[in-house]
Amino acid sequence: MTACRFIGMKKKPPVIATCLSIFALGAAALPIAHAKDPNTDTATRDTITFIFPKEMFQGTPAPVKRANLEDAENYVPHKSVTVPAGTKNLAKDKPVTSSDDFPIIGELAMVTDGDKDAADGSFVELAPEKQWVQIDLGKSADIEFVMVWHYHKNARAYDDVVVQISDDPEFQKGVKTLFNNDHDNSSGLGKGSDPAYIDKNHGRLIDASGSSGRFVRLYSAGNTANALNHYIEVEVWGK
């Protein structure tokens, strides 16, 4: 399984974007092209092309309103990315813990099982209000980006999404915040400037810029459809 690295492109002004889009469950990878280093003429980076999982929006879309909501029409995911050679999904089948020890639906292991489908039986549902899931990579790693799929069966945006990494399992020290769309600090983790966004089948890339850490923690506090929290899949790409 693979995931997507990208930064969305706005029509005005343009933003340089690279993307690692997502394999549909069971899809095969296209060949990897190796870029040559002009100084050493050795393969140092991989260019990967992917296929997104099937979009599964159902029913009549309900209006999604948030003060800091991204303009979904101007967000354009790409279908390829160039990454350092050896970059892979470090989170696959890694252990997951949560602030909610007894999910309403599903099991915490679903967060890293590689299944990004939006169908019933492919997601975990956590209790209302502020909750988190945490992935233990087993050892500290250089992280390129984190990919997140909350729920993409119908249009909704998740509130107070905060993504952090640390070598401390309690997240009391050495914490780096990669993404924060809590615009009013209602979750108490600091005011964030990132946009709220409508979850779709291509997921959302959280750029880590080569930061290092062993643990990845993701917060949310309900969504525009209900007060519950959901995760289909989380991928952590790095070395």
How is this fold's topology laid out?
Blueprint: E1 33-36, E2 43-49, E3 80-84, E4 88-89, E5 96-98, E6 124-126, E7 131-149, E8 162-166, E9 176-180, E10 204-220, E11 229-231, E12 233-238
Antiparallel strand pairs: 1-2, 2-3, 4-12, 5-7, 6-11, 7-10, 7-12, 8-9, 8-10
Q: What does the model show?
A:
This protein is an all-beta fold and 239 residues long. Helix content is 0%, strand content 33%. The chain contains no helices and twelve strands. A hairpin with a 6-residue loop joins strand 1 and strand 2. The radius of gyration is 17 Å and the shape is globular.
Question: What descriptive keywords fit this protein?
Answer:
single chain, disordered N terminus, mainly beta, 3-stranded antiparallel beta sheet, 7-stranded antiparallel beta sheet, 12 strands, globular, 239 residues
